[in-house]
Amino acid sequence: MLEKPALADERIRACLETAYGLQLTEISFLPLGADVNTAVYRVVATDGTGYFLKLRQGPFDEMAVRLPHFLSQQGIKAVIPPLPTLTGRLWAELPPFRAILAPFVNGRNGYETRLNAAQWQAFARALRQIHALQIPDEMHDQLRQEEFAPTERQAVRRFLQMGDDTPADDRVARAVRQLFREKAGAILALVERAETLAHALQLAPPPFVLCHSDLHAGNLLIDEHGLLYLVDWDEPLLAPKERDLMYVGGALLASGLTPADEEALFYPGYGATTIHAAAQAYYRYERIVADIAAYGRELLLSEAGGADREQSLYYLRSNFEPGHTIAVAYETDSTRGGEGT
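RE: above sequence
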């Protein structure tokens, strides 16, 4: 979120002292990210050590902290693990939030700096390691599994059918309504394309692997030494590898490169693999549909959010720009005219 939540710093200070044994000298809110349910801070302890504090409200999946902890234990250096509390838990309660503490890595995300060739290779190698991991049965059973469900597609259809009862003074909501009216045909075509591919994949799904599932540019962190990290494990998923690979060449990494150029930098590090064309196409369409649904819920069903609303409207509109996600999804969809691989 872009605006500091209504949470007193003293509550944060007390929580971290009780749960982690830390006494703080500094608490700084960081206006980062498009997720209105997540606030992040840099906090500094009395010994000068900096920490990254993530406060998450709403639905909470324990795998979002257990999994990066596990990945770090497996030697995957591109993952920043959460730090345990004094009692060994990987988060603390700070109602209405869960507090997750990690080492602070000073760096810039993929929107702020472009990956060089070595970093593309590091990204690829880390993702290949993750996709190849054998997950313990107990953890495997608790991870969400891909179902190619129609939930977000149905939500978008409902938004397109809604009447206009937008408050007169809600400029952002009015802009969303106008965008949905102007782009209704294009949005419905996306929904229908994703629906067609989803049905084919439900009948014959590719193999599932562990996926991060949200590897856009904002979740690639480059530290001051040039090391790359995959951050924000809020939505881990067992799914076809294309759930992650669709970001490469999908206009979501802010690289300024063509899809072919991104793939040329990435795949030598990832290694030989066969891309399931229907799965890759589905995930590119479905990602856009899910974004439209999420921004519809945020901007039409609530007036909350402050500065986050303007940022979300910007992100929503950007999907429709030339050369961006919608255009690239169609241009790279080799299954159009016939489903399959």
